Amino acid sequence: MSWIADLYAELTGWLFEHLLQPLLYAIGAMDYAEDAYAWLDFALFGLLGIAVVVLVCRPLEAWRPVEPVTDRRAIRTDMLYTVLSRLGLLPLLAFVLLSSAQAAWEGWLTEAGLLPPTLEELVPALRDHPLLAFACYVVILDFAEYWRHRAQHGFRWWWALHAIHHAQRQMTFWTDDRNHVLDDVIAAVWFGAIALLIGVPPGQFPLIALVLRFAESLSHANVRLDYGRVGERLLVSPRFHRMHHAPVSAGQHGKNFAVLLPVWDWVFGTADWKRGEFLPTGTPEEPEVLATGGWWRQQLVGLRRMAGALAGR
Amino acid sequence: MRRAPFALLLGLAGLLPTAARADLVYVLNSADASISVIESSTRQEVRRIPVLREPHHLILSPDRTELMIGDSAGNEMIYVDPTSAEVTRREKFSNPYHMELSPDGRLLVVTSLRRDQVDIYDAATRTLQARLRVPDKPSHLAYTPDSRIAFVTLQGARGLMAIDLATAKPLWTTEVGPQPAGVTWHNGKLLVGIMGADTVAVVNPADGKVERTIQAGRGAHTVFASPDRKTLYVNSRVDSRITVLDGETLEPKASWPLPGGPDCIAFDPQGRLWVTLRWIARVAVVDPATGAAETFPVGRSPHGIYVAPRAEPLPPLTISETVPPPAEVTPAAAEAAPPAQQPAVFRRLWSR
User: In the UniProt record, does the keyword Signal occur (chain B) (predicted)?
Assistant: First the structure.
């Protein structure tokens, strides 16, 4: 394994020394060198994430598709969403901005004589079990994602944005990133804030994001796949999440909100376990442009509808 | 037998290879939440000490029996016995980034880079005596030899601040250049690495005025004095090199390329430089006579470094990396292989 570590260190070192650091020096931002170096992990993991998802999900979709591909244009729109989202660096921006906010907040706290704890300090056993600590962070963040998702369906203004994600009738693994930009910003701020609140080590952040995003992409795949009677209750499957994208699950009637662990739907009574049901997806009651319009049109209509919802129309 | 007197002569002249040393080199892997303990003769990692978040700098305790290692993001001070690499205790501590004991050993001043605070502690008890709110990013610090004044670079504010340690009040704050990083007291002057430029600023400690600048490569970071203080070494992050200065005249004598972003420097008993290379997860061992360097891998973003003299190799661990070595060492464990290297981000998980 040492050659992988060396190779990775060399690659990130080269990229930082030859591309990022000269840029930081030129714009007078050398005091951000360590932050930029940490970001490299994040960016590389983003690219790796897309590669892994394509390598795993594409063969699965070819193996047992739920439905034939009839609208390639709709998939291309989702691919554009993916590229913009993952190279748009929104979660990173949120994390960096929130780090500054956290610094100010912690400064204030320490002046008041308090030191913010980390999860490992609250549960000392986690100190010696890093994998367990990692799992705890994933579970907490997944729980937070469940409630964000509930809110996306529960608030009318938020559903006006989130409906873009649900309008896709040709759902594939690319659909995961089909979100309004504003919806992405809110999601990134939410995720980043929770991560900082519970003290996620910055080094683990990219890996946690990688795990959650892989699960999300796989759950959107056009593949006739469920994880069996027990497995369906342990991990969100493509079957489980397809139910969430069915017209019966639109808006406030949502089912199966979980991102990684279906246990939250189980506990809070929003689960639908009907195995063997692979329903068509989409939101027939929403404007057609949300399903088949281009990226710009969808962004514009999403904003307009959100404004309408906020104004009570 | 005829060779014996000759060998004795050579030995007395210091020309025979001396017995191999087994110094312990402590490397703080700031992005791996761990401390690598390296044996200097083999360059093998003999211990990996997990910490909470981000270890950056380390010093010897006032009685010089313990290493004090600051975990800035983890709000913790870790105490390690430098001879055995055992963690002796941990203390809750506010954001310890850079820290130094005052020359008289009475005070411990700590900069909190990300909280814009400078804390003054009683060194023996670590009782907070004063906390100063300062401009953006207080980075490194130095003292006057009489321990009356501390100087702190303000990385985000182009500044250098002098703090009266008797009153815990700033004496002056001046502009010294873009993104100042390290500050070193040397022969009555302050030497400040100007990371946003290619110079070291020579500053008058009385009023903070920059008297002259010395070329040292882009991204000049910190000045380190050799143990005899006759030579100064300046690391430069962007041009990635070490500039050697004459300790008396401050004139550059040599420039050694050192790819990887050289950062902290420690000296071993043989006078060699052990340099952390931040961006390539390695440490360089540099020959002070020639500048020739060899490197070996450590954890990600290695920052602070310290060489603890030791003659005998550290006994291998028997149970796990994270458990202090027991009194008895089994022969089987003595043959155990050194810890395997893993990709940084995974190692980060295992090693925390």
Answer: yes
